[in-house]
Design brief:
The chain contains 2 helices and 19 strands. The chain is mainly beta and 311 residues long. β6 and β7 form a beta hairpin. The radius of gyration is 18 Å and the shape is globular. 45% of the residues are buried. The N terminus and C terminus are likely disordered.
């Protein structure tokens, strides 16, 4: 991976993927990076489907096209397709997503690029819990337990059942992190759990990421301050709604996020960026240096039959 010291006078690198996209979920399947974003560019965020992109080096991306369409693949939703997150278990891939403004659905596929079959009803319906039911994120712990996080205004977490498409409603935990707006995300390094989230509104140039630490996926969480924010001197604004992934067989980590498109971006015209995420020996996170040099990393994992089938 290459990433030089910050040069405040240096312009930001171009968007990770050409076009208007937001809310990126970055992960690794079968030795290949996959990114699942919200398709952006419409007033009111009226996207109706999700695309998938994959890469071996984080620079050249393959567009796998639409992998899930609300009108075509669900019977209960037609628009406001936002904030996807994908996890794998036992060779099956689970796509968690927002639809119809305040509902969270889930669909299942035999490969990272589909075809995804919807559960048929929302996993979390509008009004079931305080705040808005948006921005799902799934975290799989070292023991295989999977946890779903979501929320706008109020954050929620619940352990998923082994089927990955159900949970016990009586075990949902709700709380409000410091300055919380939306997009809760959890990762673990060693014995420390890191909760990160977006504060302010995605249409606000001050949209940014904050984080906290704990010794359990349920908290309690200790606020650690701002992790990622704008760089006005370089024309970078509204850095938020991120995802974090560890590069397999290493202690290198990446954070993917969106920012206002450059130039002329708004809260409806956003683009993707990616940077290294650095953990300190004390168990904290270094503040992210916003993109000024392309991040390059090729995985050494050998190509598998499932990877070939997904291309």
């Amino acid at each position: 991976m290459t990433h030089t010291d910050l040069d405040p006078g240096k312009p930001p690198v171009p968007a990770l993927i050409e076009g208007y996209y937001a809310d990126p979920h970055l992960t690794v399947f079968d030795g290949r990076f996959y990114i699942y974003p919200t398709t952006d560019g419409s007033e009111g965020w009226q996207a109706t489907s999700f695309r998938a992109f994959s890469s071996r080096d984080l620079v050249e991306w393959t567009d796998h096209g639409v992998v899930f369409s609300l009108p075509e693949d669900t019977g209960w939703a037609r628009e406001h397709a936002w904030a996807p997150a994908v996890a794998e278990r036992d060779g099956r891939y689970f796509l968690y997503y927002t639809a119809e403004r305040e509902n969270i659905g889930v669909a299942v596929a035999p490969a990272p690029t589909g075809p995804f079959k919807d559960l048929g009803v929302p996993l979390i319906s509008e009004g079931a819990y305080p705040g808005r039911a948006i921005d799902p994120n799934v975290f799989v712990d070292e023991d295989g337990a999977a946890y779903l996080y979501w929320g706008n205004g109020v954050a929620h977490v619940v352990r998923l059942n082994d089927d990955m498409v159900s949970f016990d409603p009586s075990t949902v935990i709700s709380w409000i992190p410091t300055a919380f707006c939306e997009a809760p995300n959890v990762h673990r390094r060693g014995g420390v759990y890191y909760l990160s989230w977006s504060e302010n509104d995605t249409r606000d140039e001050n949209y940014r990421v904050r984080y906290a630490t704990a010794t359990s996926p349920f908290g309690p969480w200790t606020d650690q301050g701002v992790l990622l924010e704008k760089a006005p001197g370089r024309g970078i604004y509204a850095t938020g709604h991120h995802s974090i992934v560890r590069i397999p067989d290493s202690d290198e980590w990446l954070i993917a996020y969106h920012r206002f498109a450059i130039p002329g971006g708004t809260g409806y015209r956003r683009e993707l960026a990616i940077d290294p995420l650095i953990h300190t020996p004390e168990g904290r996170l270094q503040k992210v240096r916003t993109s000024h040099e392309p991040v390059v990393r090729e995985l050494t994992h050998h190509c598998t039959t499932s990877e070939q089938a997904s291309k």
